[in-house]
Specification:
The chain is mostly helical. 65% of the residues lie in helices and 8% in strands. It has helices at residues 9-12, 19-39, 45-57, 62-69, 73-85, 107-116, 118-127, 131-151, and strands spanning 60-61, 89-93, 101-105.
Amino acid sequence: MTKLSQVPESELLRLDNQICFSLHAASRAFGGVYRVILKDLGLTYPQYLVMLVLWEHGELPVKQIGAYLRLDSGTLSPLLKRLEATGYVRRARSTEDERSVTVELTEAGTALRERAVCVPQKIVEVTDLSLDESVMLQSLLARVTGSLDAAAPRD
């Protein structure tokens, strides 16, 4: 196993050698593919992520959706507003705490799940990864995310 100290200094700052850039490039490539696949559902990728959370967990406070997706309310609120305008979700002030807004699926939002079931399969197909490789990649990314979260300074 090569140690970082053994890598020539001239290679350290090469763009292609940066993990962050590889993740960024893969994310952008995923975005392009998702844009095409999700077009038939009338969703953007961030809207799809919100729907995934709601299909999995049901009615949730906006704050909890943000925690699952690692999004702040300033980013999440416009997404939810657009999803509400399409008729997929309904937002309401919590009766227990009027500062909190909850989000629930509408009938149309629940029905959309049936049409979205094919999305993960299409994504796995275009990545050219086996199912085992896909699971391994997700595991590695979860480990990297955990390590980065632990290393990040707290606000």
